[in-house]
Amino acid sequence: MEKRLHIFDTTLRDGEQSPGCSMNLEEKVRMARKLEELGVDVIEAGFPVASQGDFEAVRSVARTIRQRSVAALARALRSDIDRAWEAIRDAVQPRIHVFIATSDIHMKHKLNKTRSQVLADTLDTVRYARSLCSDVEFSCEDASRSDLVFLSEVIRTAIGAGATVINLPDTVGYATPAGYGAMFRAVRNAVPETCGIILSAHCHNDLGLAVANSLAAIENGVLQVECTVNGIGERAGNAALEELIMALRTRKDAYKTVTSVNTEEIYASSKLLSELTGMQVQRNKAIVGANAFSHEAGIHQDGMLKNAMTYEIMTPQSVGIRHSILVLGKHSGRHAVKQRCTELGYDLSQADLDRVYGMVCNLADRKKEVFDEDLIALLDVRDVDHSELYHLDGIQVSSGTNMMPTATVALRYGGRKLADSATGDGPVDALYKAIERLTGVAGMLMEYKITSVSAGRDAMGEVSVRVDFGGVVHTGRAMSTDVVTGSATAYLEALNRALVAQKRKNGQSRSEHVSATATAV
Ligand code: KIV
Ligand code: ZN
Fold first, then answer.
1. Which of 265, 400, 404, 482 counts the most CB atoms within 10 A of its CB?
2. Looking at domain 388-520, does it have CATH number 1.20.1110.10?
3. 168 alpha carbon, closest ligand
4. Given ligand 1 and candidates 80, 81, 137, 141, which is best to mutate, with the most ligand atoms within 8 Å of its CB?
5. Is the CB–ligand 1 distance for residue 14 below 6 Å?
6. Model's pTM, two decimal places?
7. What is the distance between the alpha carbons of residues 335 and 488, in angstroms, rounded to a whole number?
8. How high is the pLDDT of residue 520?
9. Which of helix, strand or coil describes residue 21?
10. E strands along 224-338, which residues?
11. Residue ranges per domain, the chain?
């Protein structure tokens, strides 16, 4: 029999309070709407006593969300609870979330309170919160490092005072799955009153165990898990919602649990959060990272093309990603190259495929990823005689203060060596003018971009250009540690593409493009 698990999302509270993740009121409301669409059960909107801004954001979320519970956090202080209640009282389903630390280390050094004071505060504040709101969650902060006998006493007190949910956080991410699961088992045995309420897990990721610990808690009877989108949260973050939900769904056989989350909204929620906070997820992040549904190894690509289940345990569509990606790179096989060519509208013979595959391998050795536009460029020149393209033999550029930038360029074309010089407004302008004199092909530079693709003073730069040749724009790209050489290569790539396209169009011989001004050397 499957259990219905409640998802308590704390992206807007535990997540938002971590460095680099803050959101303003409008952003919080936008994210809360997305969480409502995603279908979490509870949206913890913030900690109203923390600031006026947080109070107003929580109040706006509470007034906006109609389908889900909205929770606000409060320390075990009546004044905090008043502020929290003020912020969420207009919610359709409000929840006050009260917490106090129960571990000796926190009670002694942080709260400076004895165990009996903590028990008294628990009784008083949960009772008070319950007098305001019918749904009260109580958290024993640092529960996983608390003495089990004392923890059980606090839990019994909180339930007696009216708590509807008891949350036992692994506040510092110290627990192991076996230990965290055992804590819930022990508490359920020691406090039979837990039977009538919801037990909840809240895990931090300091040892990378937040999701594993949450799953262990589920196996030991919790009916609520607390998590955040993209796993954002204090320090190393909280349990990642997308990982938890997809583990539960993909391994329903093991966890026998259902949630109300619409998994197809996962990717959009992750994207929205990154957009709002500016915090990107790492490429290899499970479920929502750029590589999560990308395959590069030839054997994997081959398997994927035969049956996606060979290398994917869930479909990208199930998390809202349109399709998997077979990345063309140096590990790709023929099968993947052929498939991508077909998708791009090129029906290749075996001989053509062999040639294009060789070209892809060559290119992939020079740049990490072969994009569609690279493949199209390769496909377009596959039957071109390479002696009919311009190749860069060498360049020399001089520029500096109080001198006219000058470039000398040497090219190879059709077995001939050509060289010429030109001056310009800058070294790149001089370079392009020299190429224009040599080839006799005039181009108008529409876009010129240099991006650093590695770090340090010897970083590789990628130069990309868009050049208008007689009304048709062609692109060129080159990587080099020397940006001037990269600029020449990128321009020549665009020029060669223009010539090939022109030749295809009118079957013209391109030898006429060789400028009369070019000096044979
Ligand atoms: O990690 C934690 O203990 C918390 C509580 C306030 C619930 O975030
Ligand atoms: Zn926390």
1. 265
2. no
3. 1
4. 141
5. yes
6. 0.77
7. 34
8. 33
9. coil
10. 224-227, 257-258, 294-295, 325-326
11. 3-277, 294-380, 388-520
